[in-house]
Amino acid sequence: ANPFLNGFDLTVLRVLYGELTGNAYLHPVIDEATDLPGELWPLAPQYVEVIPDEDEFVTGYLYGIDAQHKQVFETDEVIHFRRPNPGNLLYGMGKVEAAYGSIQANAAIHEMDLSTFENSARPDYAVVVKGTPTGDQLDRFQQQVENRLRGTRKDGSFITVTGDVQFTPLNFPPKDLAGREEIVEEIAAVFGVPVSMLKANDPNLASASTGFAQWREGTILPLCRMDEEELNQSLLPLFGLEETHCLAYDNPAPSDKAYELQQRQTAV
What we know:
Elements: H1 7-21, E1 23-31, E2 36-43, E3 48-53, E4 57-63, E5 71-73, E6 79-82, H2 95-98, H3 100-118, E7 125-129, H4 135-149, E8 165-169, H5 180-191, H6 195-199, H7 205-239, H8 257-267
Antiparallel strand pairs: 1-2, 1-6, 3-4, 4-5, 7-8
Helix pairs in contact: 3-5
């Protein structure tokens, strides 16, 4: 693609940009000697601004991290891969935007789990001291218990106390998992990925195989179609091939081999 990216790198980056933001941009660099594209460079969509126009719809693109470094590209200098967006014809809608609520909920759950792991701020047992001890007496007693029992080599140690003291273990209910399965299902639905592929613990081979086939047919195939249509419309004319050639991906959805075998056996 260019001196720094090979074709696979550029394709993966373009698809990731499209999946996440709904927009991917390519800048073809024309070779002056051949008047053909010599390099293809990706433009990070977070730094691209479409310049709209009442007559021509789009008159160019602004690209840069800030106003001082923005560069203007003409419409024929940028290939815009745009995902369908019902709310805006200039910019595509990424799957992160569509699933933003579920993604935020998933991030909040992970943050809660991390906080629990880093600081399990709950006691494992309660010590009930009857009578009317002072605060200093309770602090000294707690410090004495920790000094005698806390540590890796103090397992099985005992402590002697005087007075009416009762140690009560605290039984906490298991962590509530409600809502986590729904979040996984929502994110999987938006990104078009079967839940069996995300969880990777489905013991049912038939359902996993069906989900994998549906993923290739319902997600990967349309993705290939959108990509090849834009390349046919915008990239091939730069090589003068639009009248005689077309770019087409192989069909990622394989045919039903079991059905074909049954048809052959029936025919024989």
